Request: fold
Amino acid sequence: MIQPVQEKIILGIDPGTNVMGYGVLKVVGTKPEVLALGVIDLRKMSDPYLKLGHIFQRVIGIIEAYLPDELAIEAPFFGKNVQSMLKLGRAQGVAMAAAISRDIPITEYAPLKIKMAITGNGAASKEQVAGMLQRILHMKDQDLSPFLDATDALGVAYCHYLQMGRPTMEKGYKGWKDFLQKNPGRKV
Reply:
């Protein structure tokens, strides 16, 4: 019996308070395809609360346009500037609230994990991530955004796609013996 092809749409977000990137991947079976790539440009807005409202409205608009099944979002990078971290966390939280308001499951990824998943190097530059995504996803130069925040967001979505096929440890196995006890029908 042939199984129906599963389709999933993943919205990736790279949070920012001046430029927030987004990327949308459509996965059919095991083949990812780029649906959208762009940024929410907040640089001309000075009021931080209006920025947050704009982020919410734009993320809702992206959700309504592409109907993602899941949201993958980059975790804030822990830097030395506490104020920057707070602002970034607020932007991330507002994007997450938009997804929650539409019952979209959220997965958060650390920047290091995203870079490792795409380039094999946790210290990769934004340019290296963009170049690798361009090759992996067969994107033409004109398909890329001039903002690396957009390809960073696409990287978050692609990292999530890579994680989809891997088993999770939600059951909290303590080892093979524990795994076999909790899954009696499985053979190793």
Summary: Residues 82-101 form the longest helix (20 residues). The mean pLDDT is 88. The two ends are 25 Å apart (CA to CA).
